TrEMBL record:
<feature type="domain" description="MTTase N-terminal">
    <location>
        <begin position="59"/>
        <end position="167"/>
    </location>
</feature>
<dbReference type="InterPro" id="IPR007197">
    <property type="entry name" value="rSAM"/>
</dbReference>
<comment type="function">
    <text>Catalyzes the methylthiolation of N6-threonylcarbamoyladenosine (t(6)A), leading to the formation of 2-methylthio-N6-threonylcarbamoyladenosine (ms(2)t(6)A) at position 37 in tRNAs that read codons beginning with adenine.</text>
</comment>
<dbReference type="InterPro" id="IPR020612">
    <property type="entry name" value="Methylthiotransferase_CS"/>
</dbReference>
<dbReference type="GO" id="GO:0046872">
    <property type="term" value="F:metal ion binding"/>
</dbReference>
<dbReference type="InterPro" id="IPR038135">
    <property type="entry name" value="Methylthiotransferase_N_sf"/>
</dbReference>
<feature type="domain" description="Radical SAM core">
    <location>
        <begin position="195"/>
        <end position="426"/>
    </location>
</feature>
<protein>
    <recommendedName>
        <fullName>tRNA-t(6)A37 methylthiotransferase</fullName>
        <ecNumber>2.8.4.5</ecNumber>
    </recommendedName>
</protein>
<keyword id="KW-0004">4Fe-4S</keyword>
<keyword id="KW-0408">Iron</keyword>
<feature type="domain" description="TRAM">
    <location>
        <begin position="426"/>
        <end position="488"/>
    </location>
</feature>
<dbReference type="GO" id="GO:0051539">
    <property type="term" value="F:4 iron, 4 sulfur cluster binding"/>
</dbReference>
<dbReference type="GO" id="GO:0035598">
    <property type="term" value="F:tRNA (N(6)-L-threonylcarbamoyladenosine(37)-C(2))-methylthiotransferase activity"/>
</dbReference>
<keyword id="KW-0808">Transferase</keyword>
<dbReference type="Pfam" id="PF04055">
    <property type="entry name" value="Radical_SAM"/>
</dbReference>
<dbReference type="InterPro" id="IPR002792">
    <property type="entry name" value="TRAM_dom"/>
</dbReference>
<dbReference type="InterPro" id="IPR006466">
    <property type="entry name" value="MiaB-like_arc_euk"/>
</dbReference>
Length: 533
């Protein structure tokens, strides 16, 4: 039987009730605490005052996220809540007291990086809290033993978990958000957050999906489809624009399935959102699987033609072989994917269709792979995500007869060579384009902008261009980008309706100079010093 001094706590999710305070109520309570001095009996001369040396909320936290934009949004929300509670978010892991590691379970390499980071943190005697899809899907994994875990639907309680981890306790919150027995999309959308890029807001419109793909581990973590109500998503977008955001990304495991669980659909959401987008600001749609976009093609054409929506859609095909798609349980055939692509390309000229392909799925024959190669030759996708198949533990595909490793590598190499054999942007040299400048390039030599088709355009790194819609002349093209020269005397348009937040500034909360927990720490310090005199 564990003693009262044991540091391992039981899973506190079972203590959560409908009467518990909401995140906003907890945050309001933190901001309105007024420390009240108690009468202390003076200590005998020479006796040191005994106080708890660990005060949560005063430490430095390093947040590291792997994976998709949905995971990135979760990481931003967790960082924001921690900062609002008094913790300092640092970009230097060596300076941090605690590492918050937000994981991805899609591929083996991503989990390997996650596992190695845990080991590195422990070697440096850092406190560790883990989050994301890996611990949610497999919390009993040996290398997660004794670590604190934040489930993918529990990110609104990150402060509680980090507080306990700082004190040396292990806490695991893995429960689902429910209301009247119905599963919710997740934590509230109006939580504090720190945007990695103050100009870009990532909004998760739903979590989970309706599929049961045999290779997918994410389903184990995110579960079945659960959508946020339209009014909550619209309000989140509205707040983002009021904080100077000029680009919104909609994300989820499958945006096309949005609303099927709550009696609505993706086009209905999008038409409400475009009403809120300021002139010059842009909306980017996330990934959608073919089955759920087929019935909305006509509406999607009209939406993608809207001047404030990027003519861009990410539609993963995974394979052009119907037999492989059947083994994957993808619930569509290659003809369905072709219909989506042909329909959109015909009615939205210039649209960018991005797709994903898995090489070496179990049972894939040379003939199956050749069908995939032919699909790429025909459509010459400008954006193609090529993935060598990795069997994920616990998935049906992991139990299937595997394609030999050397064959998977060879097919991946062949498809990559085909993809790099064509240049999608050379014909655009000499064009004049309007682009929205939002990011820094990886080499920090340029700013990154995107045109109407969400094609990457590199522009000179001039501060006056950041966050602006500008006209550029395209003078060079590479495999993944174009380079544009700003047109002299052309109007530079500012889409942001407010001054963007500073990098690292917390969104969604009134800015306060000192969090209440810092006031409490200061009070205790001064009070202790007084008693020692």
């Amino acid at each position: 039987m564990p003693s009262a001094c044991d540091s391992l706590l039981d899973d506190i999710e079972d203590m959560v009730t409908s009467h518990d305070p909401t995140p906003h109520e907890r945050q309001f309570a933190r901001r309105n605490i007024v420390p009240r001095p108690r009468k202390h009996q003076l200590q005998p001369a020479g006796e040191e005052l005994q106080t708890d040396s660990v005060i949560p909320g005063t430490q430095k936290i390093w947040v590291r996220t792997w994976g998709c934009s949905h995971n990135s949004s979760d990481g931003e929300y967790m960082a924001g809540q921690l900062a609002a509670s008094g913790y300092k978010i640092t970009e230097n892991p060596s300076d941090a007291d605690l590492w918050l590691l937000n994981s991805c379970t899609v591929k083996n390499p991503a989990e390997d990086h996650f596992r190695n980071s845990i080991k590195k943190a422990q070697e440096q005697n850092k406190k560790v809290v883990v989050a994301g899809c890996v611990p949610q899907a497999q919390p009993r994994t040996e290398y997660l033993k004794d670590l604190s875990i934040i489930g993918v639907q529990q990110i609104d309680r990150v402060v509680e978990v980090v507080d306990e981890a700082i004190k040396g306790h292990s806490v695991r919150l893995l429960g689902q958000k429910k209301e009247k027995g119905k599963r919710l999309g997740g934590a509230r959308l109006d939580l504090p957050k720190i945007r990695k890029n103050p100009l870009i807001e990532i909004i998760s419109i739903n979590t989970g999906c309706l599929n049961a793909c045999t290779y997918c581990k994410t389903k184990h973590a995110r579960g079945d489809l659960a959508s946020y109500p339209i009014e909550e998503l619209v309000e989140r977008a509205r707040q983002s624009f009021q904080e100077g955001v000029c680009e919104i990304w909609l994300t989820s495991e499958d945006t096309g399935a949005y609303g099927r669980d709550i009696g609505t659909d993706l086009p209905s959401l999008l038409w409400e959102l475009v009403k809120e987008i300021p002139e010059g600001a842009m909306l980017r749609l996330g990934m959608t699987n073919p089955p759920y976009i087929l019935e909305h093609l006509e509406e999607m054409v009209r939406i993608l033609q809207h001047p404030r929506v990027y003519a861009f859609l990410h539609v993963p095909v995974q394979s052009a072989s119907d037999s492989v798609l059947m083994d994957m349980k993808r619930e569509y055939c290659c003809a369905d994917f072709r219909r989506v692509t042909d329909f959109l390309q015909e009615r939205v000229p210039g649209i960018t269709i991005a797709t994903d392909i898995i090489c070496g799925f179990p049972g894939e024959t040379d003939e199956d792979f050749e069908q995939t190669m032919e699909l790429v030759r025909q459509y010459r996708f400008p954006s193609l995500f090529i993935n060598q198949f990795y069997p994920r533990p616990g998935t049906p595909a992991a139990k299937m007869e595997q394609v030999p490793a050397h064959m998977k590598k060879q097919r991946t190499k062949e498809l990559s060579a085909l993809f790099h054999s064509y240049k999608p942007y050379d014909h655009k040299i000499g064009e004049r384009q309007r682009v929205l400048v939002t990011e820094d390039s990886f080499d920090s030599q340029y700013y990154v902008a995107h045109n109407k088709f969400y094609e990457q355009v590199l522009v000179p790194k001039k501060p006056e261009l950041k966050g602006k819609m500008v006209e550029v002349d395209i003078y060079e093209a590479g495999k993944h980008y174009m380079k544009g020269r700003p047109v002299e005397d052309a109007q530079v348009f500012t889409p942001s309706i407010a001054q963007p937040l500073q990098k690292g500034q917390v969104s969604g909360l009134p800015q306060v100079s000192i969090p209440c927990r810092h006031w409490l720490f200061l009070f205790l310090f001064l009070h202790t010093s007084h008693l020692k005199k």
